[in-house]
């Protein structure tokens, strides 16, 4: 399939837009996101409050804009740590094999035996609710997928003719692993990291929705959905807009992932 | 054949592809006739359009951007070029059947072989399940299945390559076609199996009155099986005629090149014997000495089942003298590649000794590996997979030079250019990546990388197997030049005996992980001592159209190998 | 039939995994700062209850001995008492398995029923508008947060079709099924897009494959090419994908059960976390982990059945 730049451009535009919103939120938000206006409770969307207000009279638009800062941060940090940890562990395990590899693979099997969210919740239950707990849990659990992916790639590439050629030419093991194998192996992880960003974003929002992540009154989209839940039939705008924001941001990540996959010829 | 009625008559068949820049012609007004019961050989190198031509005949263009722009295809006098998709579908299989190069990818992996035959029988002949199964079993017998009732229920992956090709022929026959198009049907097979499959096709022509179009890149195959030969190049049919006429008096230069490139033709210049610089009576210390080498690989086995091993090389002893050119031949699975890797310390030895320049790999491993890495290099089969796809040719070469430290850093760019000159690549190739090179250019880059080591020994593992014949001839010529000018020792591994005969002074024949015969090329090829070697040589498709095809009569040699 | 021999031997390989799972759950709870007995029993525990737990779990002994007691109790089916429900953890979980199982099953069924026809429609009309629509839908669908989709469905139905129950589980079979409709639609909307994507990709691959070309070359109509050769080959990798996603699916049920107030294991887990009922957290995590291992085992069997080349 030919790479379609349109997908990449759309995806990058969406992501760029959210980054911009996150950076400029304090400037472009019409109101203070946690200011409670008792006189303007549960206002439907209007020219004064474009996205309406919630039951405390807070401006939904301002909260959605400020939420971009937290949710983008969740996706980025929640992917970055597992990516780096998993890539290093997976590459070393796959390349050197042996006992360390065997033990790591068993550990990965065990971690994968737990449903992702269940293990996350259990760790958060112990660390106590909050965003820091979420990041720690993410780093403890999320590296597994990257390690498996890289390890499998390294195992294939290790037996490739050009790895064999590199050995026969007297290259050192570190040179072979980091210069010849890893750059070719990492393409798949890069594509995966985009769909992983979607997963992390949804998990972060879900955990916050359940009340175990970001704590009110901070504006985060999952928290906002939870706050609007009791009013969903009377004041739909409280839940609709933060949810839509998640969907659109996730769509941006997916588009970039799709485009990268096509460009690099990687099938997930 | 001229008196037989015409079965297929194609005129001016043209296929174009729609591109942004406009339509490009892939097949340019191809015309040919096929008589009833005739075998027509369609010869050409990759990209000549020979496969596309056959697919265009039955309306199976591989992409939607391709279009049959003009031309007629008369099947028994009726034009099918403009037939509706439904009409074409009724013709495919039932009147024109096809078999393909790679049976492994063309057979449905999750459907039993028997069911795939039954499918065709039931669909095209309208038989019920019981009748269709009986018919399928009969067809399986015809194409050489030894135990059809049992093999009916097997899946494709449970058969050998040769049997898979028989299965594909059976599936084609199940539709009871009048014309069979065979697209490189034996290219993926060992030479002894190739002979059997060709024999089967000729047999079917006789018993079923099939007309056959045999597509191949191997002139040897057509010489021994076809009535007429058509040569294609760049989408055009450049020459067609009786096979004897074409082989003896080709009209076109390109056909002459093709014939000259065929390895079974004695090369005009320096035959292998001329390469022997010195009489071997001079006592030289062997560069490589292999003594009772065993290489075993673990297969399967797990927690509960006992570890099993597969013996890839079982007790091989061999000496290679400096400056020698040694060919190692054998069919797939004979252990020749494993031997090559063991020789270079690239695979663990299970037993025995490998000595390089006096260093023993099993006794002083580190020291020997150091010597091997700086004095020996390997050239691989697949030129694309053996070069790091992310690096340019220049980067690849300079990295080797930097690691090997035989050239001062400042001299590296000049050395890279010298290497490219040596393998006859333009210097601009230093800035290109493997993907943008042709197979032959890529293989030259692979050879340049090997030369960057300044090796005494080069091991070339099937290094021309993936290339077109004219390119093969060029690479062989390059290797011959390098060996004669650079004081190199070359171990040349191939399944193609004819190439080995043309290039190597000495030949080693391997079978099931053992050496069954070795000696000077001339002697071995002229007077093989072992039945297996004789069978291998006999199975090479030869240019001589009058030599019979030896397939069925192939004696399967006892492993101990009594003299024939 | 020796390809199926792994059904007998594979469960032995589960033992180390289950063993590891027990270590992790044990360590997780022991990591909580403070007196483990107080952690496990809550702030208002009576001294006698604390003494009981200390004895049962050997809390005064070194950590490895504690793990040994933990394992011993586990084998006896004792995972301690829930501090909120005042009953043993295992029977408590047992009462919560059925709704979760029913939800998972109906979601998977619904997802397959949506994904297969949609993927087939898209793959067979590759490049046409319907294909683009399916692709965009699946790219969007993956990013739909289940908790939000659930609320939007409630909102939509409250306006359009106010008969369906939006919370709880019911007691009779029919009642339960009706209560499951909205939750399973919520999960299926996400899960089916994942399946749809992979199935479509596999189908497109196989439609272009040599197997399909060979079938066309022998005059098979496109419908036979698709249903008899393409679909069976495309299904095998999707089974694996379903198994890989089972963990993710269970995560989805945890959230969806909370939204729709379904008394399943997910809701139990979330409430236990809030109530600091660690015995229950530990128990639910273990049961979920064992279930995941079991599902992967079933998927292996299905894969072997779908693809004769696979050997395990």
* H and E string of chain C: HHHHHHHHHHHHH
CATH architecture of the largest domain in chain B: 3-Layer(aba) Sandwich
Assembly type of the shown chains?
heterotrimer
User: Helix proportion of residues of chain C, in percent?
Assistant: over 70%
Side-by-side strand order of the widest sheet of chain B: 6-7-8-3-9-10
Q: Report low-confidence residues of chain C grouped into runs of 5 or more.
A: none
Structure class of chain B: alpha/beta
GO cellular component, one term (chain B): plasma membrane
Protein name (chain B): ABC transporter ATP-binding protein
Subcellular location (chain B): Cell inner membrane
Family (chain B): Belongs to the ABC transporter superfamily.
Describe the protein in words.
The complex is a heterotrimer of chains A (268), B (564) and C (312). Chain A has helices at residues 5-28, 60-96, 98-113, 116-127, 131-158, 161-168, 173-209, 221-228, 237-264. Chain A has 268 residues and is mainly α. Chain A has one domain: MetI-like fold (Orthogonal Bundle), CATH 1.10.3720.10. The longest helix of chain A has 37 residues, at 60-96. Chain B contains 20 helices and 20 strands. Chain B has helices spanning 50-57, 85-91, 103-106, 113-125, 129-142, 148-151, 161-174, 191-208, 219-225, 243-248, 253-261, 336-343, 365-375, 393-404, 412-422, 439-452, 469-486, 497-503, 521-526, 531-539; strands at residues 6-19, 22-35, 39-43, 66-75, 78-79, 96-99, 179-183, 211-216, 228-233, 236-242, 288-299, 308-320, 325-329, 351-356, 359-360, 376-379, 457-461, 489-494, 506-511, 514-520. Chain B is globular, with a radius of gyration of 26 Å. Mean pLDDT of chain B is 86; it is low at 267-281 and 551-564. Chain C has a domain at 89-306: MetI-like fold (Orthogonal Bundle), CATH 1.10.3720.10. In chain C, 77% of the residues lie in helices and 0% in strands. Chain C has 312 residues and is an all-alpha fold. Chains in contact: A-B, A-C, B-C. Chain C: One of its GO terms (cellular component) is plasma membrane. Chain C: Belongs to the binding-protein-dependent transport system permease family.
């Amino acid at each position: 399939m030919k790479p379609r730049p349109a997908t990449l451009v759309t995806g990058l535009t969406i992501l760029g837009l959210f980054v911009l919103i996150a950076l400029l939120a304090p400037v472009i938000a019409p109101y203070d996101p946690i200011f409670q206006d008792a006189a303007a409770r549960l206002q439907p969307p209007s020219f004064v409050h474009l996205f309406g207000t919630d039951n405390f009279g807070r401006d939904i638009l301002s909260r959605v804009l400020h939420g971009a800062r937290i949710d983008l941060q969740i996706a980025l940090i929640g992917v970055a740590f597992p990516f780096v940890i998993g890539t290093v562990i997976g590459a070393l395990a796959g390349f050197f094999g042996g006992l360390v590899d065997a033990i790591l693979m068993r550990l990965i099997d065990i971690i994968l035996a737990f449903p992702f969210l269940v293990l996350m919740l259990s760790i958060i239950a112990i660390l106590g609710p909050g965003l820091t707990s979420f990041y720690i849990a993410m780093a403890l659990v999320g590296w597994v997928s990257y390690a498996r992916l890289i390890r499998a790639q390294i195992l294939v590439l290790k037996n490739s003719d050009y790895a064999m050629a590199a050995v026969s030419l007297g290259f050192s093991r570190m040179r072979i692993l980091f210069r010849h194998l890893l750059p070719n192996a990492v393409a798949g992880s890069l594509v995966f990291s985009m769909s992983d960003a979607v997963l992390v974003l949804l998990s972060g929002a879900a955990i916050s929705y359940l009340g175990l992540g970001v704590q009110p009154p901070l504006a985060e989209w999952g928290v906002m959905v939870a706050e609007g839940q009791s009013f969903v039939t009377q004041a739909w705008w409280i839940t609709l807009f933060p949810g839509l924001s998640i969907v659109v941001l996730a769509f941006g990540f997916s588009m970039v992932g799709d485009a990268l996959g096509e460009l690099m010829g990687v099938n997930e | 054949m001229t008196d037989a009625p015409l079965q297929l008559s194609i005129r001016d068949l043209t296929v174009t592809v729609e591109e942004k820049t406009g339509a490009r012609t892939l097949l340019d007004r191809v015309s040919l006739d096929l008589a009833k019961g005739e075998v027509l050989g369609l010869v050409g190198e990759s990209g000549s359009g020979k496969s596309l031509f056959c697919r265009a005949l039955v309306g199976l263009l591989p992409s939607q951007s391709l279009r049959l722009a003009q031309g007629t295809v008369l099947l028994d006098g009726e034009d099918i070029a403009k037939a509706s998709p439904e009409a074409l579908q009724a013709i495919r299989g039932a009147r024109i059947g096809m078999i393909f190069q790679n049976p492994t990818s063309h057979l449905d992996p999750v459907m039993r072989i028997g069911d795939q035959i039954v499918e065709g029988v039931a669909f095209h002949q309208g038989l019920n399940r019981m009748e269709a199964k009986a018919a399928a079993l009969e067809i399986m017998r015809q194409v050489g299945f030894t135990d059809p009732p049992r093999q009916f229920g097997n899946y494709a992956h449970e058969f050998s390559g040769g049997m898979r090709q028989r299965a594909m022929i059976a599936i084609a026959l199940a539709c009871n076609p009048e014309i069979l198009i065979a697209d490189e049907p034996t290219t993926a097979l060992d030479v002894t199996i190739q002979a059997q499959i060709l024999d089967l096709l000729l047999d079917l022509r006789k018993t079923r009155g099939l007309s056959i179009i045999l597509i191949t890149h191997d002139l040897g195959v057509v010489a021994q099986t076809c009535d007429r030969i058509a040569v294609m190049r760049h989408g055009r049919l450049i020459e067609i005629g009786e096979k004897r006429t074409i082989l003896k008096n080709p009209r076109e230069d390109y056909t002459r090149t093709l014939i000259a490139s065929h390895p079974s033709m004695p090369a005009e210049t320096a035959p292998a014997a001329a390469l022997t610089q010195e009489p071997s009576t001079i006592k030289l210390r062997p560069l490589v000495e292999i003594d009772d080498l065993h290489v075993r690989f673990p297969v399967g086995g797990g927690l509960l089942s006992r570890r099993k091993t597969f013996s890839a090389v079982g007790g091989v002893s061999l000496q290679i003298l400096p400056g020698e050119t040694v060919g190692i031949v054998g069919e797939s699975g004979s252990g020749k590649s494993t031997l090559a890797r063991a020789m270079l310390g690239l695979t663990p030895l299970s037993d025995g000794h490998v000595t390089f320049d006096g260093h023993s790999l099993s006794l002083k491993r580190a020291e020997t590996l150091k010597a091997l890495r700086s004095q020996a290099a390997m050239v691989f089969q697949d030129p694309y997979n053996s070069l790091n796809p992310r690096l340019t040719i220049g980067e690849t070469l300079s990295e080797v030079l930097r690691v090997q430290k035989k050239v001062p850093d400042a001299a590296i760019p000049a050395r890279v250019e010298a290497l490219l000159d040596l393998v006859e690549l333009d210097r601009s190739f230093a800035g290109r990546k493997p993907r943008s090179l042709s197979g032959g250019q890529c293989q030259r880059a692979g050879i340049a990388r090997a030369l960057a080591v300044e090796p005494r020994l080069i091991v070339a593992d099937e290094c021309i197997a993936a290339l077109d014949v004219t390119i093969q001839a060029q690479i062989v010529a390059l290797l011959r030049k390098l060996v004669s000018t650079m004081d190199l020792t070359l171990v040349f591994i191939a399944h193609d005996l004819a190439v080995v005969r043309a290039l190597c002074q000495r030949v080693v024949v391997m079978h099931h992980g053992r050496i069954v015969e070795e000696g000077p090329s001339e002697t071995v090829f002229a007077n093989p001592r072992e039945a297996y070697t004789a069978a291998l040589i006999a199975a090479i498709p030869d240019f001589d159209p009058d030599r019979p095809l030896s397939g069925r009569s192939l004696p399967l040699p006892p492993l101990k190998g009594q003299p024939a | 039939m020796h390809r199926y021999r792994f059904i007998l031997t594979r469960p032995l390989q589960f033992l180390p995994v289950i063993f590891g799972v027990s270590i992790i759950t044990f360590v997780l709870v022991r990591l909580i700062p403070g007196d483990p007995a107080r952690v496990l029993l809550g702030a208002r525990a009576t001294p006698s209850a604390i003494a009981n737990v200390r004895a049962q779990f050997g809390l005064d002994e070194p950590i490895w001995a504690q793990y040994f007691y933990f394992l011993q109790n586990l084998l006896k089916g004792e995972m301690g008492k829930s501090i909120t429900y005042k009953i043993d953890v295992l029977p408590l979980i047992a009462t919560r398995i059925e709704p979760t199982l029913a939800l998972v099953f109906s979601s998977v069924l619904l997802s397959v029923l949506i994904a297969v026809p949609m993927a087939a429609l898209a793959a067979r009309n590759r490049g046409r508008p319907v294909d683009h629509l399916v692709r965009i839908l699946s790219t969007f669908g993956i990013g739909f947060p289940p908790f939000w989709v659930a609320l939007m469905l409630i909102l939509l139905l409250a306006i359009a079709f106010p008969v369906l129950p939006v919370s709880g589980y019911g007691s009779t079979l029919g009642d339960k099924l009706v209560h499951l409709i909205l939750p399973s639609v919520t999960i299926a909307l996400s899960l089916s897009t994942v399946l749809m994507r992979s199935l479509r990709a596999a189908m497109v691959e196989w439609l272009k494959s040599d197997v399909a070309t060979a079938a066309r070359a022998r005059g098979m109509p496109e419908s036979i090419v698709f249903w008899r050769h393409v679909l069976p080959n495309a299904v095998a990798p999707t089974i694996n994908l379903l198994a890989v996603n089972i963990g993710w699916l269970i995560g989805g049920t945890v959230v969806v059960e909370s939204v729709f107030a379904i008394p399943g294991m997910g809701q139990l887990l979330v409430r236990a976390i809030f109530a600091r009922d660690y015995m229950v957290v530990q128990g639910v995590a273990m049961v979920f982990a064992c279930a995941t291992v079991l599902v992967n085992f079933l998927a292996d069997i299905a894969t072997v059945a779908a693809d004769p080349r696979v050997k395990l």
